[in-house]
Specification:
- This protein is α+β, with helices and mostly antiparallel strands.
- β1 and β2 form a beta hairpin.
């Protein structure tokens, strides 16, 4: 499903979703296709976010776009240079 379809089906909710398709642009992962797994209670969202397995994430449907900001570890480059 597209993120817009998911937002219509689950308005104003936290969801655990499986990411099916995305592209990267300017250190961002732009998610285009997801498969909803289940809703997540607001009080459990943080805990569930950190428990999510690879390829899944907890995200709120109030967000118009599904964007994950990628943090590149600058120290990784330094470590490679020093080796």
């Amino acid at each position: 499903m597209t993120w817009q379809e998911v937002r219509e089906l689950f308005p104003d909710q936290f969801l655990l979703v499986s990411i099916l398709d995305y592209y990267e642009e300017d250190n961002k992962k732009i998610v285009t296709e997801v498969a909803p797994i289940r809703t997540v209670a607001k009080k459990d969202a943080n805990k569930e976010f950190f428990r999510a397995k690879e390829g899944t994430v907890v995200y709120h449907t109030s967000n118009e776009d599904f964007v994950i900001h990628l943090c590149r570890d600058p120290m990784m480059k330094v470590r490679r240079i020093l080796k």
